[in-house]
Write a structure and sequence with these properties.
This protein is an alpha/beta fold and 338 residues long. It has 11 helices and 10 strands.
Length: 338
């Protein structure tokens, strides 16, 4: 028999999202921040949106993110005196390890390519998305500067501190005013990463996340063009279960990332853009499809139909680059003798 009590029970606390901003294919987007930025950035990139994700590498704390924005504004290159050699690799304390190289010139080239890409995208961006991961910083004792990556240097080279709310809001008030002056139409989206920084300890992680949340809230209240997306709250209050974490119990699982991405889709995109996004997903699936027999008339017609669909979408949406897909289906047409 039905249980009237359990029929009325809801074992979730869905988040009411009032994002206050929209994303779309007309936007040019720059995303900076923690590895969660990369998760969502990959979704946007796969949907063929004009997005640049962490062009100087993954960033965790607000100060390093702000310094990266400053560097993107200036566009000034890294020089030889800015890199150091450690464990056979040339690195920079402001860049992620993926920019390091055993060859100094190669490392410099990678870093300067990242700066150039960040500068070009920021100057024309309509949306800047920043994901704060932790309020804890590591300050280089040699010069007092906050570092983005310690690159496995000795721990006693650095001093660990936690930013307070005023540290963050003061820094970003100045930064956002500067951004508004050079790019008046820029919309800024803040979010706090749901990735747990358990190396800080469970209590300190909560203090850190709370600091980030309070700072983000104050900035949203102060600036009309600054918005907040509750990725942290979705993970903590809506999903709220260890089954939504990866095996390390720190990072959100693929299912959790997909769910937060779905919340972003439903709340921040127009129906027209969602329809285009779905068509792009179908095109990608069609390209990955491998027929049992590619010489059938049925498959040849499938190729012709796909080429026609992509060409139609390219005409309807000139802001989206379909050149690779068109080239793929034209090549398939030639190979099958269509």
């Amino acid at each position: 028999m039905p249980n009237k009590l359990t029929d009325k029970m809801d074992f979730r606390t869905p988040i009411n999202i009032n994002a206050g901003f929209k994303l779309g294919y007309a936007d040019k987007i720059l995303m900076l921040g923690s590895c969660f930025t990369e998760n969502i950035g990959q979704k946007l990139s796969a949907a063929k949106m004009n997005v640049v994700v962490n062009p100087m590498g993954i960033l965790f704390n607000p100060e390093s993110i702000a310094e990266t924005v400053d560097k993107a504004i200036e566009g000034s290159p890294v020089c030889e005196s800015d890199v150091f050699e450690h464990n056979g690799l040339w690195s920079n304390l402001m860049f992620h390890g993926r920019f390091s190289s055993p060859d100094k010139q190669d490392a410099l080239q990678r870093m300067n390519d990242g700066i150039s890409l960040a500068h070009k995208q920021l100057m024309k961006a309509s949306v800047l998305i920043l994901t704060f991961g932790t309020a804890y910083i590591y300050r280089n004792k040699a010069d007092g500067r906050v570092v983005a990556n310690c690159h496995k240097l000795p721990a006693n080279n650095f001093e660990r501190q936690m930013l307070n709310v005023h540290d963050i809001t003061d820094r970003y008030t100045e930064l956002f005013e500067h951004l508004s002056a050079i790019n008046p139409g820029l919309q800024i989206v803040l979010t706090v990463s749901p990735v747990r920084h358990l190396r800080d300890g469970a209590h300190d992680n909560q203090l850190s996340k709370s600091t980030l949340l309070l700072a983000a809230d104050q900035l949203v209240r102060h600036f009309g063009n600054v918005h907040y997306f509750p990725s942290y709250e979705i993970m903590m209050d809506d999903l709220r279960d260890y089954r939504f974490y990866a095996n390390d119990m720190v990072h959100p699982s693929d299912m959790a990332v997909d769910y937060i991405w779905q919340q972003l889709r439903e709340n921040c995109f127009s129906q027209q853009d969602l329809a285009l996004m779905d068509n792009i997903a179908k095109i990608k699936a069609a390209i990955e499809h491998r027929p049992l027999n590619p010489n059938t008339d049925e498959y040849k017609q499938f190729i012709t139909n796909q080429l026609g669909l992509v060409q139609q979408l390219a005409t309807q949406h000139p802001e989206v680059d379909f050149s690779q897909e068109i080239s793929h289906w034209k090549k398939m047409t030639q190979n099958t003798g269509n």
